[in-house]
Amino acid sequence: MPTVAYQLPDLLALLPKKPGGNINPYFEEANTRYDAWMKKMFGWRWLFALVYDSEVPLLASLAWPLASCQELKAILDYMTSSIMLEVLTDHCSSAKAVEISRLWMETLRGGDGGKFSRHAFFKSMRTELVPNMKAAIDPFHWPQFIISNDQFARNTVQEALDREAHVNKPRKIQSYMIMRRETIGTRPCFVLMRTTRRLCIPDHVLTHPVMEELENVALDMVYIANDIYSFKKEYGENGALNNIMTVIQKDPTTNHLDLQGRFDYAAKLFREARDRFNACRDNLPSFGDVDLDRQVSAYADGLVDWVTGNIQWSIVNRRYKVFRNDADRKNSILRLSPNPQYLSSPLLIVFVIVLSLAILFGNLQRQLFYI
Fold first, then answer.
1. 103 has which bridge partners?
2. What is the pLDDT confidence band of residue 191, given thresholds at 50, 70 and 90?
3. Of 37, 90, 127, 290, which one's alpha carbon is 20 to 30 angstroms from that of 105?
4. What share of the chain has pLDDT > 90, as a percent?
5. Residue 310: how many other CB atoms lie within 10 Å
6. 300-326 average pLDDT score
């Protein structure tokens, strides 16, 4: 089938080198151990394939380059737990989503939530994953970690409620961006990043307007990049219903853009977020303590590591399969099979409609002939 080539933005070129280094030195060890654990836990069922293709150890090693071996293992345990929450609630009723999310949070808090669950994963989460997390996460960060995950679980329930109520996804870019900051599930990962860097930043500093903006625009860069690089996969599965590319298509101010124009516009949004991030970083206030100011600056470094690591992972992981070959990856060329709904070519739409009608009436005539 013929394909159409699109020029993706080179987002890595817009960012500085990662302050924490390119990749965690424990990657190979963590990857081998994680694959063995996954096979033992899930066998070769579809869930193993889903997580395997996500290459979770690679993302963890790129986004948390300074994590120790123990911390990297705990990060993988957490990421697996959060993936499972999404998998278990992705297509269920809101009532079931409430039950699963409550059980998930009770287990994460270290309670007996998973003790009586028949689901093998909750048993593993209670007896193995959560103890690993608690052993690796600094006690200072544990309350922040729990609070951020409680909000993540609430967002999971809200998505189920929206599905049942047939609530349409936001049709305006700004509304989508505010929503996506929370649904992408990255805030708990930022807490884990602070614990790997020994950054004991109190809540009153994290809630300073400049700090909140710094974190929010970092989240913007994470999900904009994620939506660009996952578009091909989502486009083939469900038409990329929950993707900024589709929101750009629906927003009245940008719905005139073709698909290349939408990629370019998403890149513009990314650059704007990058510029706001840099402006926040340049204007970080002093909090009256030299060591605390150093930690705040180091937190900004960690956010750069996370944003950049997420892009590095998105480009190469098996789940998204963004590029067909190394040459396309080098030149940021994405190839898609034509689809009139997303390519937005009026002539192509007319052609497909006419062709479909011709086939339909041709089939009806043949059916009438044989009656």
1. none
2. very high
3. 37
4. 67
5. 24
6. 94
Q: Which residue carries 């970092």 as its tokens?
A: 218
User: What element of type H or E holds 335?
Assistant: strand 333-336
Per-residue confidence band for 369, with pLDDT thresholds at 50, 70 and 90: very low
For residue 154, what are its two tokens?
């609430």
Helix (H), strand (E) at residue 269: helix 259-282
- The CB density around residue 196, as the number of other CB atoms within 10 Å, is 24
Burial of 224-244, coded b for 16+ CB within 10 Å and e otherwise, reads: bbbbbbbbbbbbeeeebebbb
What burial letters (b/e) apply to 94-129, b meaning 16+ CB within 10 Å?
Answer: beebbebbebbbbbbeeeebbeebeeebbebbbeeb
**C-alpha distances in angstroms, 123 versus 83, 113, 134, 156?**
16, 9, 16, 21
Best CA proximity match to 121, nearest among 217, 194, 45, 172: 45
Counting every residue written for the chain, the total comes to: 371
Tokens at 60, concatenated: 């963890």
The pLDDT, as a whole number, for residue 235 is: 83
Please check whether residue 341 is in contact with residue 5, taking contact to mean a CB–CB distance below 8 angstroms.
no
pTM of the model as a whole: 0.87
